[in-house]
Amino acid sequence: MCNTATTIKKLEISLFHAAIRNSSDKLEKLLASDFKEFMASGDIYHKKDALLRLPNERPLQVKAGDFDVKLLTDESALITYRSIYWRGSSPKSYSLRSSIWRKNNGIWQIVFHQGTLCSAFKLAKANNETSI
Fold first, then answer.
1. Taking the complete model, does pTM exceed 0.85, yes or no?
2. Domain harbouring 70, CATH code
């Protein structure tokens, strides 16, 4: 489990980085064919939407922590965490996030993500923070 948890956390964090977000090829490999995202706006995005939207977004700054990975089966895992994100000088957004990752043909892919806006907070586990 520990190795799987570390892998899932690293994969989730990789999605914060412009090198991944701006690459349709890398996103194609990380997002499952049936990927679905519930947006804070209430919109629902699928893989094709993410492949069109993410590579064109402005750079994102993220501070995330309080990661928790739960193995659902041998080939699926749920990760939850809190994040603070912003672009340039825009106001910071605080959210609770969750993703489900599934192993497809030996490769971990994200199949579901949801970010829910919430009140401002301080990340409790400083040793568990990621900032890019």
1. yes
2. 3.10.450.50
> Which residue(s) pair with 83 in the sheet?
64, 95
Torsion sign, CA atoms 37, 76, 1, 14: negative
Digit-coded pLDDT (tens) for 6-50? 999 999 999 999 899 999 999 999 999 999 999 888 899 999 999
Structure-token pair, residue 34: 């049936």
Domain total for the chain? 1
Give the pLDDT confidence of 106-131 residue by residue, as tens digits.
999 999 999 999 999 988 754 455 55
Within 8 A by CB and 6+ apart from 100, the residues are 72, 76, 77, 78, 110, 111, 112, 113
Structural domain span for residue 96: 2-131
